[in-house]
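so i finally got all the pieces together for this one. its two components total, 697 residues if u count the protein bits. some of the lines might not be protein, just check the labels. i wanna see the whole assembly predicted at once instead of chain by chain like last time, that was a mess tbh
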Amino acid sequence: MSELKTIALVGCPNSGKTTLYNWLTNSNYRTVNYAGATVDYAVGNLYYNGSRDESYRILDTPGVYSLDQGGLDEEVTQKILFEGSAEVRPDLVVMVVDGTQLLRQLPTLEMIYRSGHQLGLIITMKDLLEKNKISVDVEKLKEKYHCEVFFFDGIRSHGLEDILQLFRKFQKKDLTIVKPARLSDSEVMGLQRELKKVLRSQTDAPITYKVWTQKIDKVLLHPVLGFFAFFVIMTSLFASVFWLATPFMDWIDGGFGFLIERTLAVAPDSLLADFFANGLLTAFASVLVFVPQIFILFLGVGVLESTGYLSRAATVIDRPLSLVGLSGRSFVPLLSGFACAIPAMMATRNISSTKERWIANFIIPLMSCSARLPVYSLLVVFLLPEASAVELGFAFALIYFTAALIGALAAGILSRLLKNKKNGHFLMELPLYRLPRFKFLAVNSFHRTQSYVTKAGPIIFVIAVGIWMASSFPRTEWTAAATPSMAESYLGMAGQKLEPIFEPMGLDWRVGVGLISAFAAREVFVSTLALVFNTTTDEEGLQSGLLTIMKDATNSQGELIFTVPSVVGLIVFFIIALQCMSTFAVSVRESGSWKFAWIQLLVLNAVAYALAVGINLIF
Amino acid sequence: MAKAVQKVQINTSYEIAGFKGDLTLADRLKDLGFLKGNIFKVVSRAPFAGPIIVELDSISFALRESEMDCLEVIECQN
């Protein structure tokens, strides 16, 4: 077997690079953190003819407009190209160029060529070139850059075999790589003049590939209709996250409910069965129940991104966001925050301004992530037991709107506090609208969901098992019957010690235990509540059993615990509090500052607590 | 001789005559294809008096007013 060859794909954003990457690796890849940088890039394996004997390592680098400046994202590409450690140093750099934008992308190509890398050139958007009868003088490009040049059609994968043969043929060489200086304006213009004739139109007819894009933009970027369209598209995205996911979530919830019941029925008096059912299975259920929502949100954002709409959405919302010190560039990270704060914080890397990145990272935990959904759904259904699905939908919308408003308020305050720091820029390319490839989108969304489950899952799992142990001990005998009452368990004892903290919120120590467990992962709140209130699964699942118990639950003075003010206070607490330890860890990493992460943790939780207490005391 | 333009108008084409102000931003604009001598057309304005939408060659961009200010432009006739 020959030595493993590493191939880096480099190109401008929207050049079709990732589509080629998906075809090459069959979406069989993982994301890797570049040593010393916070940005990830994707590494995948390509097996020629499916054979493991002939494999290549393919790097998908973040899109670049130039090789000497830009955000954190672009820095990674520059590092891979010019500072590559032995592990990531590419043996071949494949520049992927959008054929319709060839001239604009020449400076980057020229810089890679000058750096001394072995080079391959792939021209994408072949379908658009053909449709408009534009020919490309491949020989001229080959001669100029001393490299192979191939076309690639991202829709039908035409040209893939040529590219594979290029990978097979080239030899690994020991090259000296030098980062070239930025091209001067006159050099760039000279280069474009020299290669202008490479693109030849065979017809006098005007170029048509942008016609559709122009027509659609007339509506989607219209001063009035544009905002309306934005509103409708975003509302449909969130609505579909709930509506489409609900049946799947019910299946998962119901399926685990059934398993738990059966497990307990097998050996009713066994501690082991109790551990399996109420410890392990409950923990699994609390992780997996969100998978449908997270998948659908990733898929929805993926569709909007690959069609080209996301950059329009960012444009439409730029002005309103600029009022609170942000820009349209923060839009995608904030939107992702509604799924999970962790990928959202990572997505702030393409925000060029440090100040804006800082504000966006601070307020991302205020975007109600999907882990809060089960909590909201329990509490909202408790407040509105008779409500129809539509009314519940409005209640949810109100919660999300409140969360976004609080986020905007916080951003505004932070922006005033940081007014001396430099503002960022917006400057967004609006790519042509394209039809998405659903297969790749589905696979990508699956990968991202999987990475959520594997990253957040173990933590949630360990905590859930820990809570089971704390609630099942101390004990004298190893039978389920000898399980201590909640008040006598370690968990109960700890909760009772901390009760004075939760009392002003109108809650007793049992809800307090739930709130403490929510610091592991918010969704654990519901399963812990079920555990501390000794809920049994009824025929409609865990939630309806819990709701029945909540209605009559009283504290040691015999007063109802779950009143309208205390439950509304709890909802507000969950909207604002930063309870997720994984988010805290990512916040440290992304901000590069423990101070930032601690301030964020303390401020958000203090405000959440103060408001929950305030609501309970005033109303 | 066409004179330098202070504020760009919708449905009008402009030629880039030079750069001013923030140099890093000017470099960024050049990286995106806003080179001296190139012509772009202002097509619309995003909602809430947001970014200016321009077409340069066959691609569209959204620029804030402050970013447009980095460009010295002259109005093209016809």
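Chain B has two helices and five strands.
Chain B touches chain A through 33 residues (CB under 8 Å).
anyway lmk what u think
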